[in-house]
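Researcher: I'm comparing several assemblies side by side, and this is the next one on my list. It has 537 residues spread over two chains. Same procedure as the others: predict the full complex and return the structure.
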Amino acid sequence: MSALLELRNIRKSFSTELVLDNLSLEVPEHTATVLIGASGSGKSTLLRCINLLESIDDGEIYLDGQEISDPLVNVDEVRRKLAMVFQSFNLFPHMSVLENIMLAPIKVQGKSKEEARAQGIELLQRFGLSEKFDQYPDRLSGGQQQRVAIIRSLALNPRVLLLDEVTSALDPVLVNEVLSVVRDLKSDGMTMVLATHEMGFATQVADQVCFLQAGNIVERGSPDAVLHNPSHPQTREFLKRLHEAGRL
Amino acid sequence: MSERNNSAWSPSSRELERRKERGRISRRQAIIAAISSVLVLGTLISIAITSPGWAVVRKTFFDVNYGREVLPKVAEGIWINLQLTFIGGACIGVIALALALLRTTKSPALTPFRYLATAYVDIFRGAPLILIILLVGFGVPALGLSGIPSNVIFLGTVAVVLTYSAYVAEVIRSGILSIHPSQRAAARSLGLTSTQTMRYVVLPQAIRRVVPPLLNDFVSLLKDTGLVSILGVTDAVRAAQINASRTFNYTPYVVAAILFLIITIPMTRYTDRAIRQRMSNQNSEGVVV
């Protein structure tokens, strides 16, 4: 089966700094791809390029066989199929939880208010947040905010969910409530690409783990292979440092 | 967030002692403030009263009977200022918002308008309001265009609107630019177009953020409507001037000033409070004493 999302020879630089260097990746449907690597290795930039928030310098990105890196492509239409969740949640502070979730279905998909509302309530119930529907984001804990951000992305029924270090801004207790949401999505068959520092979690959900170093995928394989039997010396070095920092 | 029961608590003896101590401290501060105020105000008043020209000043500037006599005329004038402020304010809001949006848009079709908006703001923010009033008030009728009223009230309002639209556009634009790019990224990644992102995500937050400076501009607007008096509009300033030059008694000016203050002081107090509220909402550490 061909991949749902395919990256070919992606190159991206910010002025003189090369951030992604000839990077290729295939993401089959209903699988989770986990990106690991030190800060600055290009994980976030890769996700932002897939979501067309950054334009690439060279290479091609295909979604469902369509080249989305074509400048003639309608970016708004592409982004409906590619939902992104950010490290800093980025909920809209002037809207309640439910309004945050309803905005895109109403304005982007043209759903009626009632329809969007019913869907929003249903999603909130499913993830145990239904009593928070009329609260404003600043009244929620970080974990709750991030769960709302994930729900907001899911409301568009995206083909692929991009998660950019969604637990990095949370304390260890709150990390788990967000990760359990991601685990649920994984078992529902959602196609996901995640950048994370949670190695234990990576082992649980990943179908493939990619270790990024200096804008390239140095090692790629099953979680067991990459995280427990790394073949590349740079991967081993990275995991050793994580281990010393108590993160593994 | 905590929902534990608080009713069973009663303050400890140490806390009661602290409260008494705090009470003593704030009483002492109140006494110091009162003494200081009396001293400063008393000095200022006594300097004025004991000055050699005080008797003349009191008669020509603070003639209570004459003040009462001109009050209705000046009050009629300030009604004109208020009308100018509210009608002008509404026009300014619309024009300024359009200018701010034009200056922040990236749409290629609007490129010439973006440059025009920038030039407009540069010109009207840089030129003194009184010159704009004179140029519009005397220049536009001289053009002899049909269909444009040569009514001085109308032309004066146009001049004030032209200038204030430039000021307010910059305030709104700074609000738009102050919204963090991550908000835009989140909206775009949900598939909202750039126009929808501006309309539903950026602008509502930006406007909320600039309400206090806009209130400030509103107070300034009310005061600056007094400048249209140079075109011969019988506003509060002009009404005072007419009466003062008739009798060589300047009390009408003081009456006009007091009327302006009666309106502007509550407005500025309210603005200050709005700013303080905004500040304490933004940082949870509260105000440091």
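Model: For your comparison table: Chain A has nine helices and ten strands.
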